[in-house]
Amino acid sequence: MRAVTVHGPGDLRIDRRETPVPGPGEVLLALEWGGICGSDIAYWRNGASGTATLRHPLVLGHEVAGRVAALGDGVTGLDVGRPVTVHPARPVGEVALPERIAGRTNLHPQVRYFGSAAFDPHTDGGFSEYRTVPADQIRPLPEGVGTERGALAEPLAVALHAVGRVPALQGRTVLVNGAGPIGSLLVAAAKHRGAGTVVAADLTDSSLAVARAMGADETRDLSRGEALPEDVEVVFEASGAPAALGGVLRAAARGGTVVQVGNLPGTPVTAVLGDLVTRELTWIGSYRFVDEIDDALHALRDGLDVSPVITHRFPLERAAEALAVAADPGSGSSKVMLRLSEPATAA
């Protein structure tokens, strides 16, 4: 089988590997679609994502969907050919979380994640024609949700988790700063959860166009000097740019809430944070998700249309080109998708 594998900074290859065989409790998937994420780009560009550094070749990809190809011993409740997606996180060990964060498995001290070099050996992702997956990480797709949309369930779960960090969003005014793929999905998730007016802000017309298609009521083009709105009750910061924090905190209403969704650097940076204190803001983080991938699948089943976030599609053999497009701010891309299976074999 073929697999999209990063061997080092700038060194992406389509490797040939043996097709795996599912062991007890495992499912063999024939993957069909995968979405490119910022971590995939980081491994390709830098050989690292955050504090996770490549030590060995790594198969990329954690936003994937496909069909059940074979079942290992002991697996029940799934049929060959069933379209599914994957919950890409698996906590390591039997560590009991403190009562204050009980059930928040995204905060487990050690988590293996598809397409991650955080552990040695690394955890290969799903940008390959086949992959074995523990059965408890399989999520069947609802009737009417195909595998391309199913591959969006993981990033939509990230957005739903972030929106869920703010209780009682119904009818409230929301600002989403940064309208990349996650920011645009935040727009859709906020509207889905009942937000009133949603304003999206970004530096590029193409990103704002996607945000509007995903349900943004207003947009602000910061590259043209358009200002952020004022006195916004709930702000989702999705750019991860430290230079944006000063304006974002000022846009929040006094006593308001800022949810940090965009990954901030793990190294010292310069940022203007004074309004955090003087406006008495609540600034909270949002990291991955717990089980919101199930909520994402229910939302897709019930008609939430997030397809406008998809702007480009590439076959697996053009993965390097796909990553370059996803990484280029001038390409007009939002979510770039990889077709992981041969058209002749894909259902």
Protein model, in words:
β13, α4 (181-192) and β14 form a beta-alpha-beta unit. Strands 3, 7, 8, 11, 12, 19 and 20 form a seven-stranded mixed β-sheet that branches. Strands 15-14-13-16-17-18 form a six-stranded parallel β-sheet, with helices on both faces. A three-stranded antiparallel β-sheet has the order 2-1-6, covered by helices on one side. Helices cover 22% and strands 29% of the residues. It folds into two domains: 2-156 and 289-339, Alpha-Beta Complex (Quinone Oxidoreductase, Chain A, domain 1); 166-285, Rossmann fold. α3 crosses α8 (292-301) and α4 (181-192) runs parallel beside α5 (205-213). It has 347 residues and is an alpha/beta fold. It has helices spanning 38-46, 147-150, 153-164, 181-192, 205-213, 245-251, 275-278, 292-301, 319-327; strands at 2-8, 11-16, 26-35, 48-49, 52-53, 58-59, 63-71, 83-86, 89-91, 111-113, 130-134, 138-140, 174-177, 198-202, 218-221, 232-237, 252-260, 282-285, 310-315, 335-339. Belongs to the zinc-containing alcohol dehydrogenase family. It comes from Streptomyces zingiberis.
